[in-house]
Amino acid sequence: MGRLTQFLNVPGGMTQADAARLAQFKRDSLAERMEQEFADIVNRLRATLDGADQPTDQARAELRRLAYELTCTAGTFNRGSLSTAARALCVLLDGLESRRAWDRNAINVNVDVIRALMRSPPGEETEDLLAALARLTAHVSRT
């Protein structure tokens, strides 16, 4: 039994509404720190890519790890579009890896979209960017 379940099951203990408020408070208190973490991840993506004309297995693994980390955490902190773009990078990297291929241009475009989404709040163009990214990912994954 999890710790939260224990608190919820204690007579006179925490209610589900209390637990939800506490979780929201905790998430909100981490949001600023996570924005900096997202920026750091994006900078590491760019640095890893810039150092990898023909990447080593280690560079490929690091790109994939960073993309998955951003995918998993960004959505938790109301950065769904950032998570979606990072997920597209995961799919792209996995597709390329399955063929032992490398398409630096496609990866650059994906990382550039992620960087653009970091710098500006979601707007009308966000959906267009994500749709274009999905088409690019699908195309590169097929070829």
Features:
single chain, 143 residues, mainly alpha, 6 helices, elongated
Summarize this, please?
The protein is mainly α. The protein is 80% helix and 0% strand.
Mean pLDDT: 85
Number of beta strands: 0
Distance between the termini: 48 Å
> What fraction of residues sit in β-strands?
under 5%
Q: Strand-and-helix sequence, N→C? A: HHHHHH
From the alpha carbons, calculate the radius of gyration and give it in angstroms. Answer: 19 Å
How would you describe this structure to a colleague?
By secondary structure, the protein is mainly α. 80% of the residues lie in helices and 0% in strands. Helix 2 (16-50) runs antiparallel to helix 3 (57-74) and helix 3 runs antiparallel to helix 4. It starts with a helix and ends with a helix.
